[in-house]
Amino acid sequence: MPETVTSRLAGFHKLSLEERRSQIARMFRLSSEELAHLCGEEGLTPELANTMIENALGVFGLPIGLGLNLSVNGRDYIVPMAVEEPSVVAAVSFAAKIVREAGGFCAEADRSEMVGQIQLTRYGDPAEAKKKILGAKEEILALANSFHPALVRRGGGAKDVEVRILPAPEGPRGEPLLVVHLVIDTQEAMGANLINTVAEGVAPFIEERAGGKVYLRILSNLADRRLARAACRIPVPLLADFDRPAEEIAEGVAQASRFAEADPYRAATHNKGVMNGIDAVAIATGQDWRAIEAGAHAYACREGRYRPLSTWHLEEGHLVGRIELPLALGTVGGPVKLHPGAQAALKVLRVSGVRELAGVFASVGLAQNFAALRALGSVGIQRGHMALHARCVAVTAGARGDWVEKIANLLVKAGHVKVEKAREIMASLSPEEAAAATGAG
Question: What range defines the domain where residue 407 resides?
Fold first, then answer.
């Protein structure tokens, strides 16, 4: 794919659906079949869905759009996003445009190291059991790596064995929990299935070597060895908007960040904004978005109190944003390869590997967060959100075609974005206009 692809597509939202599709197909050299997969016209069939889950009835659709303007480490990305909320794609695109003008995002991601947990019980003396397990470390690693030799040949596989002794949840009279951690580099895979295979395969050897009984053996979704980070540095003058000075907008973002750092009630909503963007890309690209959510929120509590995943502060005339969170992603395996739409989405993203993908995800999360805080710290979240929500209201009231936008604009102007108001507006139209507005003309 040529590097001339740009994420700056001015006026893209004004194009018709067909014009947008044609432009993206040309840019990314998508075949008609790949375009149909990306757009959801073809792809995940009921027959394929029946092989993926139990008791399948069919498939469920979500709108898929493109986040624009994203620049990460000097490279442009157009980002497929599957989401039902009206403001998400627009917010990412707008925030990414501002950051792009400031030089774009910088991002990095750790190696794909994940943890498989093996819980040992009835082991006797915990210090002695730990000593036995660590004494057999090389044997455990060799056994673990025997289950996935191809992964080892690619440079991945089991890398370390750790033993944790945790206080009994019942108190001092209970048996302390002895947990063996297998640290596994999963390379380009998210890794759940291969980690679970290794943990189950190694468990009998640990029972034999240390004594005791193994119960749970499964991966941990707190992927804190697999962190992704992104940052941006925006000159304050770029922030002027809403008929307000740039300094006021910047201060509002910084104060919103302080609020999230101090209060878990606010931090939960702050992080939900981050995940609005990340989840949308995860769904579009076939990732385990539930695992991503679990890991992110667990990581937010790593210091004993729920905290924001991203922070913003003023520094030498710039608004500086940073984010760090665990991202267990995959470019191979599972739905990533099974779902035709996910494959097409990854082709549009043009990432060379899972670490680059994680950097894009983290940048999208920071952009989404910036867009929310920028509005929250100034005019409030509802102005932009309700303008987009008005389209859904207009459609619900019966508007079709070009009249959706017309009715939506009238709703926003009236300051009353409700279905009843939309129907009132449509009732006031002439018979000819009403017929056109509802698609009957």
Answer: 383-437
85 is catalytic: yes
Please compute the mean of the pLDDT values over residues 337-351 and round it to a whole number. 94
Name the residue among 353, 420, 360, 428 with its Cα closest to residue 393: 420
Of 288, 356, 389, 421, which residue is the catalytic one?
288
Asked if the structure places residue 342 within a domain, the reply is: yes
Does residue 2 belong to any structural domain of this protein?
Answer: no
**Comparing C-alpha atoms, which of 409, 340, 252, 266 is closest to residue 35?**
340
Residues 239 and 355 in one domain: yes
Residue with the two structure tokens 């974005």: 417
Alpha carbon separation from 99 to 79, 314, 361, 394 (Å, rounded): 15, 15, 15, 32
The catalytic position among 148, 270, 385, 421 is 385
Q: Give the CATH number for residue 124.
A: 3.30.70.420
**CATH number where 298 lies:** 3.90.770.10
pLDDT in tens, 284-323: 999 999 999 999 999 999 999 999 999 999 999 999 999 9
Active site residue 170: no
CA distance 343 to 191: 18
262 phi/psi in degrees, rounded to 5: -90, -25
Alpha-carbon Rg for the chain, nearest whole angstrom, is: 25
Asked if pLDDT for residue 203 goes beyond 80, the answer is yes
Q: Percent of the chain beyond pLDDT 90?
A: 77
Judgement on whether residues 236 and 106 belong to the same structural domain of the protein: yes
For 11, list phi and psi in degrees, rounded to 5: 75, 10
Q: Which of these is catalytic: 159, 181, 272, 297?
A: 272
State how far the Cα of 192 lies from the Cα of 412, in Å rounded to an integer. Answer: 46
253 pLDDT more than 60: yes
Judgement on whether residues 266 and 353 belong to the same structural domain of the protein: yes
Looking at the fold, whether 92 and 124 belong to one and the same domain comes out as no
Q: What is the pTM of this model?
A: 0.89
Q: Looking at the structure, tell me whether residues 350 and 393 fall in a common domain.
A: no
HSE on the CB side for 392, CA within 13 Å?
A: 10
For residue 202, tell me if it sits in a domain: yes
